[in-house]
Write a structure and sequence with these properties.
This protein folds into two domains: 13-174, no CATH class; 180-241, Arc Repressor Mutant, subunit A (Orthogonal Bundle), CATH 1.10.10. 32% of the residues lie in helices and 28% in strands. The protein has seven helices and nine strands. Helix 6 packs across helix 7 (221-236).
Length: 241
């Protein structure tokens, strides 16, 4: 069971970032073997099936076609159709240079982890990212930390899932007060920024240096600082591209 540090339990809620794997999930299987990734915008129970709205993205038209073909061919999907202008470019995806298309996918409801999370009070706060055979959820919950830990354990057992809590922060004064929304960042910018936050780079005095973070990511310090600069610009000014 995930261990949480002791904090004041009288909070107005928490925002969690979860790294999830669970069996019989088509999003995990296709993103593990095909290029590109997916953003999940909602899953709904319709006629006993899960029907989800997704954005599929890739670095090229060829990569995107390979991904969509893999989704359509998966034995875990029942029906797939495109819902947007073909191969549109959408700055809302993890990287503004990605080629994207909108999809609606129907599949077995029992293979979705969405209801297991939502029914226990974990409300998605950003589109769900699926890439590299993993799902990355950002959720909010108004339960105390002990209850959150118990409910995550229930989901692990019910869905035979692996769930890692990457970060957990208290929300004070409302769901968005003092919280950066990171869905505007590219995958690399998000990775660098979240590592910096997790390693207490933004505390004073700092507990880690930029050189330490760069070494952990196996990139140069200049590259790390450039990723952080771009991420910070986007987060502080949502109009920044």
């Amino acid at each position: 069971m995930t261990q949480f540090s002791s904090v004041d339990e009288q909070i107005e809620g928490s925002r969690l970032q979860l790294d999830i794997w669970h069996p019989d999930c088509w999003t995990l299987e296709v993103t593990d073997s095909a290029p590109g990734g997916l953003l999940g915008h909602g899953v709904y129970a319709i006629d006993g099936k899960a029907t989800g709205r997704f954005t599929a993205y890739g670095r090229s038209v060829g990569d995107l076609e390979t991904l969509v073909e893999a989704i359509d061919a998966s034995p875990l999907t029942d029906d797939v159709w495109e819902a947007d202008q073909h191969y549109a470019t959408d700055v809302g995806t993890p990287d503004p240079e990605n080629v994207t298309t909108g999809l609606v996918v129907q599949y077995e409801l029992s293979n979705s982890i969405n209801d297991a999370l939502v029914s226990r009070g974990f409300i998605p706060d950003e589109p769900v990212r699926m890439t590299g055979g993993r799902e990355y959820w950002t959720v909010v919950s108004h339960e105390d930390r002990a209850t959150i830990a118990d409910r995550l354990e229930e989901i692990r057992e019910e869905k035979s899932a692996e769930i890692t809590v990457e970060s957990m922060r208290s929300l004070h004064g409302g769901l968005t007060s003092g919280v950066f929304r990171t869905d505007c960042l590219s995958e690399r910018q998000r990775e660098v920024f979240e590592l910096a936050r997790t390693r207490q780079y933004y505390t004073w005095p700092r507990e880690v240096t930029a050189a330490d973070l760069a070494a952990e990511l196996e990139i140069s310090e200049a590259t790390l600082l450039e990723h952080l600069r771009k991420a910070e610009a986007k987060l502080l000014d949502p109009g920044t591209q």
